[in-house]
Design brief:
The structure is a homodimer.
Chain A (H helix, E strand, L loop, with lengths): L1 H18 L3 H9 L3 H9 L3 H10 L2 H8 L4 H10 L2 H9 L3 H8 L4 H10 L2 H11 L6 H4 L4 E5 L4 H11 L5 E8 L5 E6 H6 L6 H4 L7 E2 L4 H10 L4 E6 L2 E7 H19 L12 H28 L4 H32 L4 H30 L4 H25 L8 H20 L2
Parallel strand pairs in A: 1-2, 4-5
Antiparallel strand pairs in A: 2-3, 5-6
Chain lengths: ~425, ~425
């Protein structure tokens, strides 16, 4: 990779230019970098040189970098800048990034920014701030190419040449009618291949997919992936309002995956390295304490049956461990299948994983029973307990993601803790016969 | 969503046309669908109507659908088709999909397909079949737009108009020199905005990112996401050989996520619904049995210390459960951070999560100790055991993903099982003082 290989040397000279106050040399080299690398360079600087950098580049040039920062980083950077510089920067951002930035602010705080925009633009941003978090409306950008249904290919090409600079993508041109209703789409590829006098209505794809503003970002993600789209139009009662581009969808994918991982381990919201110690502890402790309540079931059962203590001490940790692990396996498989999911998949999954659970339970029960013989423990009870505990944990693991509303309640720790409780209750019940 | 809303009605009429043998009506409506929806329709058919559908559409039309099938589905479909139809279909596929399909075959089996291609094309496919699984070389397509460094903007535009139909993307045009060395890239946007007589060398972006053929697909994914690319060029010693497009990268993202999920739960390779009962059982049982070996540590310890059975029975399941859950939380956070990872993150993560672990351990130890008072158990031993077990499990969970080579050894079941062992050993050791 060219960029990565030369990066050390390149950033060394960049930093040198900045240190020596060689403004134009610095600008030339810095601005030829991709915003992602510009940001990587800024991360290397101390506050003093960072402030010089801000002075060397214009707000409009800084806007692309600023839009890539996390909200928490944006707030830190704002502290280091003159208010006028911040406002100019924000004005130069595409609407979706502007909305991301402003969404952390109170309504009053957004006023100075909105005042800088043209009325029409300000209205648009205000409306977008009103869309729910994680919806297509909040994710969309309003910088897209649009053409009227009566336009010719030549009209559209001219329009792309004149306005293309400001659009997020020029590779799809959306076709609307007099009421701004979305009627179709043409790709730039089509435009280049067709005769200049052709009317776009004749060549546009009119079976196109769009989403309403309130649609969840996860649905947006699935559509873009399934249909290999570079952008997806967003409408309200048929009126075209914006587009969601594939690079923003990639970021959503990343967020959603992070969420799924976190929920599966009861560590939701405590993964990100930006989260501090106290915050992470609070979140994780909340989950652990909730689980202790479940753990009290086996404690009470064992306390009430001291006569079986030795068998319990010996057999329960082993059986509960296998059952818990089998449950975690089933849960993870079910969570993924549900996440990707069609309706019919649930039946198919339950059928397969119940069979798998029976087999796992049988094999494990025989193995543990053999161990019980060696350790002179009640063989039949141990075997039956192993069989039932593993089967039940697995089946609960499979069904749990489909029945709980709050998906964080279907996590590995939850299933492991329930497995302990099930094992103890089963074992003590079996021993009492 | 237009498509989804009308889908039921649309597919009803499609099926009707097919049933009534209305070939041209069927073709017209079917071919206007997106390949993703064409595939969804085919899934609804029985073998008889499916075979009629194959007859109604040409191999070249079927190629786009065929490329979207999973390898296992492709093999099933091949069974239903005439060999000549299959060969024509494969010939019409883009090289990356052709390679995906053929990579499941032995060298001899690929011969009839390769014979259909022009020598130059066949050589290319053969070379691509040689690239390692999950590398940039295996992922790339060779249908891209290329122009010589001396060409003008007008030359390139003409070239796009003539050859654009066959390229996977026409939105980036790669610039090479006489030795086919990749020298730069121009976007179609640039081409449209520049004067026709401009030489591309003057306007091309020459600081561009490319990867060598052997680079892992995970790296490809990170680059495409970080730099918001629609395509990434793949080279060998500087020579341009292909491009990886963003839609293929989305599929990789999906695969990698699935892998991570599976590994985290010791259920790797057993999630997909296409995996049968026996195969899924085999994979999962393998993991469970390996863990039983670890579980033998507490069993042996308890067996050798029967005098402590009652305390063990009462305290160990509770402490081990909390410790295991804390370990799973840490493991999940660490796995994600590593996955996204910079070098410096490890230190930052260990520092933060050790502090979090200390806090979690302290709070839990106090809570469990209070319970020990109520249940008349050895308070100090219970408290110290809880403190140490939770702290150790958490720290091991944080470090594990970074120290094990085989990432499936850093799964939730592994950490939970080790937590059990640690708790028992600690508790018995403490009781013996």
């Amino acid at each position: 990779m060219t960029t990565i290989k030369n990066w050390q040397e390149y950033s060394y000279y960049l930093a040198l230019h900045l240190k020596n106050k060689e403004r134009s040399a610095f600008r030339k080299q810095f601005l030829s970098l991709h915003p992602n690398d510009q940001l990587a360079f800024i991360y290397m600087l101390n506050e003093h040189t960072r402030k010089r950098l801000y002075r060397y580049i214009a707000p409009a040039e800084f806007a692309e970098i600023f839009g890539r920062l996390e909200p928490s980083e944006q707030r830190m950077v704002v502290e280091e800048l003159q208010p006028a510089y911040v406002q100019e920067t924000v004005r130069a951002m595409p609407t979706d990034e502007m909305v991301d930035f402003l969404s952390g602010f109170s309504v009053t705080e957004t006023v100075p920014y909105l005042n800088l925009l043209e009325t029409h633009e300000a209205e648009k941003v205000k409306r977008m701030l009103g869309y729910g978090k994680h919806t297509a409306g909040a994710l969309m950008t309003t910088e897209y190419m649009v053409a009227h249904i009566t336009h010719t290919v030549a009209d559209v090409l001219l329009h792309v040449r004149e306005q293309g600079e400001n659009a997020e993508t020029i590779y799809y041109i959306y076709i609307v009618d007099d009421e701004e209703i979305l009627r179709g789409v043409v790709s730039l590829r089509d435009i280049l291949l067709e005769a200049p006098t052709t009317i776009v209505e004749a060549i546009m794809q009119d079976k196109l997919i769009s989403v309403e503003t309130h649609i969840d970002q996860e649905t947006v993600l699935h559509i873009v992936r399934d249909y290999d789209l570079l952008a997806l139009p967003v409408t309200e009662q048929g009126k075209l309002l914006g587009i969601v581009t594939v690079d923003d969808v990639m970021d959503v994918y990343y967020e959603e995956t992070e969420e799924d991982f976190g929920e599966l381990a009861g560590v939701s919201g405590a993964i990100d390295l930006d989260i501090g110690v106290m915050q992470a502890t609070k979140i994780r402790l909340g989950w652990l304490l909730r689980l202790i309540v479940i753990s009290m079931i086996p404690v009470v059962f064992i306390y009430l049956n001291p006569q079986h203590a030795y068998s319990i001490a010996l057999a329960v940790p082993l059986i509960a461990s296998i059952a818990g692990n089998a449950g975690i396996q089933s849960l993870t498989a079910a969570t993924r299948v549900k996440e990707l999911g069609n309706e019919g998949d649930f039946k198919k999954l339950v059928l397969r994983d119940s069979l798998v659970a029976s087999l796992l339970a049988t094999v494990s029960a025989v193995a543990v029973a053999m161990l019980a013989v060696v350790l002179e423990q009640p063989v039949w009870q141990v075997m039956l307990c192993t069989l039932l505990a593993i089967f039940l944990s697995s089946v609960i693991g499979t069904i749990l993601p489909y029945v709980v509303k709050d998906s964080a309640s279907a996590s590995s720790p939850v299933i492991a803790t329930w497995s302990d409780a099930i094992t103890v209750v089963l074992f003590i019940t079996l021993l009492s016969f």
